[in-house]
Amino acid sequence: MNRSGEQFPTTVDDDRLGIDVKLQIENASLLPAQVSLGRFKLADGAKPGTGVISPHEAEMVTLSPGETRTVGLEFETDETLDCRHSFALDVSGAVAIEGERVDLAAIRFHPVR
Question: Which of 82, 87, 73 is nearest to 24 (CA)?
Answer without folding.
Answer: 73
